[in-house]
Amino acid sequence: MTTITPTWENVKPLGRTHQLPDCLWLCFSGTGAEFTFHGSRCEVTIAGDANACPDKCDELVRIAICVDGVRVVDEMIDDAEKTFTVLNAAEKRDVVVRIVKLSETAMSTCGVKAIAVDDPEGVRPTPASTRRIEFIGDSITCGYGMDDEDPEHKFSTATEDATRAYAIRTAEALGADCSLVSISGYGIISGYTATGEEKVTAQLLPAYYEKLGFSYGTFHQRAAEATCWDFSAFRPDLVVINLGTNDDSYTLDDPERQEEYRAAYVDFLRVVRRNNPGARILCTLGVMGDRLYPMVSRAVQDYAADTGDASVHAMKFDEQNADDGYVADWHPTAVTHQKAAARLVEEIRRQMGWE
Fold first, then answer.
1. pTM of structure
2. CATH classification of 132-352, choosing from 3.40.50.2300, 3.40.190.10, 3.40.640.10, 3.40.50.1110?
C-alpha cells in the first residue's frame, strides 16, 4: 500500500481547505478532497477535533466518502482518528474517491490525515471544473436537519447533510466546483433570536467570511477563525449570497432595523467584491420567508448606484410550503431544496450563459 498525506497538489480540494503538516483541515460544510487512482483497495484516515468523543453526540463531524459516486461511508467522527476501508475489490480499476464533510464548521472540524491505496503511483487530483461558484449562507445552505423529518426536533450535526441542500445540488446540476461559507443561525446584523428583542451580534457571517471557518472547538489546538482564507486558492465565477433569514427574526417589521440590515448588506457586498473582483454576485432570499427581500433588492440597487458595479443582481426564492413538509426546526426538506436548486439553476444559466 502507498500512503500519502493529502495536499492541494495530490488531491483536488473541495471548498475551503487548509494544509497542515500532517493533514488537510476541513471546516465549512461541503469541504473535502477528491482523487483518482488505479487499484482495488483504499483506506482513508480522518482526524477528529477537540469535540471528537462519544459524549458530544450532537456536535461531532459527520463525514461521507463516495467511491465512483456511491456513498460507502457515512460516519460520525467520535475519536481522535478513524480509518475507513472505502474500497476492497477483487480486481483493479480506475477509481474516483470523494471525501465530503457533511456537517457545519461551528460545531465540528476535522482533517483528512492519510490516504492509502494499492497503486504504486499513489493518488492524483481529479480535474477542476471550468465553472466555480461560492455560496454564502446560513442553516439552509448547511443542509440543517436534512435527515430528520420531525420539525419539532432540534439541531444535530448527525442530521446535517450539505450535499442534499440547494447549493451543492445547484453546483452539480451546472457541472461547477463549489465552496460553501455557511453557519447555522448566522446573519448580517443579527443571528437568530427567539424573542425578536435582542440583537445577536455574536453570530454574524461577515465576521468570518475572510476566515477558514469558525468553530466552538479547536483542531490540533488551532482555531479556524484564526486562519485567514487565501482567496487566490478558489476564484469563483459567481458568488451566491443567501443571508437574511436569521436577521429577519430580529428586524421583524421594524423599518429602522430593516434599514440597518440594508446598509450592512451594502457594506458586505463591498467586502465580497474586494475579495472576488472578477465574479458576478447574485443576492437571494426567501426559502424560509421573504419579508426582508425588498431590503436585499434595495441593497443591490444602492450598491450598484454607489459603485457603478453592474455585475450584482437579486433573485427571490419561493417560500417553502407545508405540502412539501418540514425537517428539524421547521427547515426545508429535500423536496424544497430541489425546487430551490431548480429555480437557482435557471437564474444562473440566464445570468452566466451556462448551458
1. 0.97
2. 3.40.50.1110
